[in-house]
Design brief:
This protein is of the alpha+beta class. Helices cover 47% and strands 9% of the residues. It is elongated and about 105 Å long.
């Protein structure tokens, strides 16, 4: 299947607003046909250009390829180069005659220096092109002679090593159709860059609004006046409890629901891998599959009642959250198809015309971190990957860094021994944190050293080591988990007391 048809089919899978900003691949193919016709009219067929044309000297040297020595070229040669005019580039051909390297035509006998074979390039160039190319470098007599020759039907300009002394050292031939090709391509990329800047601003605005909505829908207990924090002056660590009022506040908030949603989202690792097995940006197919799996799991839990979005604000926010992720995926697809279309059309341009591959174009999807005006720079960038950032990856980072910190994650406040919420939290003199039950068990076993740093701080810990600020934070943001932890601690403490009394708690016998 031709890429033109594949390109059209891929664009149909994207939203209409992205399709309207796509590169017009078929239009560029038509312009390439015009370039070939223009070169043939100048007598520069692909067969001729393959033998005499040279790439611009300003192009960077490719790795593993040795650059050709200009001195190796003898006789007339053609250089394909670009000049910058106003806001666009104009490709042109520069014909170098190198008459100084050849012996005079009237020199008798063989020359002491080796004579290079003549290279004849017959160019049926129209008179107006000749006048433009030669400019003031040729005398008026020569111009009149050229005009006289152009009146005949088979007017030709023959550039050879024998008659090159009659012409200037260089002849510049502008390429009108080629200029139209690169102007059309660069204008499309610049227009796409401006569009992406607008979409990025819209994304950031929506993201800020979504952050506010999720914060309002997942309020902690301290959002009401009934929340009373504990302190070492007014509270006894042995009598800390989570009131039913705090749980009632949670029931009117979607705090726990959003925590589960974000937990599923992090486990999905949709756009980026953070595991040891794979780190970095995922390919499009993998990201799409993971997004579909995440969406299916989410809808399944909601339908079964495992996730309850009590507030309408949360339901709207969840839809917006999924829309932002879908947009990032569509942007990844659009980035891939645009880069492939640009690469293909430039390759087709070089193949059909036999002109050297054009200099690298910039990509509207690549962002420089040091860009002050946040402008998007153009695609096959010559910068190292560590110095640039793709727009889709930037949006993924903005999404995760803005939304995920709204809801504290329970893993960040877990005891490293029991891996559950470290409630009530005890901070040792070495600054490491454990829940009170795990610390009591360590002390009963007579273990003196911290399990993390091996500092002798366990046996000296007492109620003065309670981290009251963290205790209030856990009670505020994790009321359900804190209540379960307290119940578990009470049950374990009761079992230990019964075991110390020699009573078996494995079963209950009714007499």
């Amino acid at each position: 299947m031709h890429f033109s048809k594949t390109y059209s089919q891929l664009l149909l899978t994207l939203p209409p607003e992205l399709r309207q900003s796509a590169i017009q691949y078929r239009q560029l193919k038509k312009i390439i046909n015009q370039i070939v016709a223009e070169l043939n009219a100048l007598g520069l067929s692909p067969d001729i250009l393959q033998n005499v044309v040279q790439p611009p000297s300003s192009l960077p040297e490719d790795k593993g390829k040795q650059r050709e020595d200009p001195e190796q070229h003898t006789g007339p040669r053609i250089i394909y180069e670009f000049t910058t005019v106003d806001d666009h580039v104009e490709p042109r051909l520069r014909l170098c005659l190198d008459s100084d390297d050849l012996p005079p035509s009237d020199a008798p006998g063989p020359s002491s220096s080796p004579r290079h074979p003549d290279v004849n390039i017959v160019l049926p160039i129209p008179p107006d092109v000749i006048r433009t190319a030669l400019g003031s470098a040729i005398s008026a007599d020569t111009q009149e002679s050229s005009e006289g020759q152009s009146e005949s039907s088979d007017a030709e300009l023959a550039l050879s090593s024998a008659d090159s002394r009659a012409l200037p050292g260089e002849l510049i031939i502008p390429l009108v159709s080629d200029t139209n090709f690169f102007r059309t391509l660069t204008e499309a990329l610049n227009s796409l860059a401006a569009y992406l800047v607008t979409k990025r601003e819209e994304f950031e605005t929506t993201l800020r609004s979504l952050s506010h909505d999720i914060s309002s829908a997942s309020r902690p207990s301290s959002s009401t006046s009934s929340f009373h924090p504990h302190s070492p002056f007014s509270s006894d660590p042995a009598n800390i409890s989570v009131s039913s009022h705090a749980l009632a506040i949670t029931s009117r908030s979607d705090l726990d629901t959003w925590r589960q949603i974000f937990q599923l989202y992090m486990e999905a690792d949709i756009f980026q891998g953070h595991q040891e097995r794979f780190r970095g940006e995922r390919d499009i197919e993998d990201a799409e599959t993971r997004l579909q799996t995440f969406n299916s799991e989410l809808n399944d839990r909601i339908s079964k009642g495992a996730l309850k979005l009590r507030m309408k604000q949360s339901r709207v926010a969840l839809k917006t959250f999924m829309d932002l992720n879908t947009f990032i995926l569509d942007l990844r697809k659009f980035q891939h198809v645009t880069a492939e279309a640009t690469r293909k059309i430039l390759k087709k341009h070089a193949k059909r015309t036999a002109l050297p591959l054009a200099p690298d174009l910039t990509s509207p999807f690549i962002i420089r971190p040091d860009s002050q005006d946040r402008a998007l720079v153009l695609s096959r960038s010559t910068m190292r990957s560590t110095e640039t950032l793709s727009l889709s990856l930037l949006l993924v980072q903005a999404l995760t860094e803005t939304l995920l910190p709204i809801i504290p994650h329970i893993d960040d406040y877990s005891c490293v021994i029991c891996t559950s919420l470290a409630f009530k939290p005890i901070r040792l003199r070495c600054s490491h944190l454990f829940c009170v039950r795990c610390l009591v068990k360590l002390q009963k076993r007579g273990e003196e050293h911290c399990p993390i740093c091996r500092a002798p701080t366990v046996l000296s810990a007492d109620r003065s080591n309670v981290d009251w600020a963290l205790l209030n934070f856990m009670k505020d943001w994790f009321p359900v988990e804190a209540r379960k932890k307290l119940q578990q601690n009470e049950r374990e403490a009761a079992e230990e007391e019964m075991q110390e009394l020699g009573l078996d708690m494995k079963g209950c016998v009714v007499m």
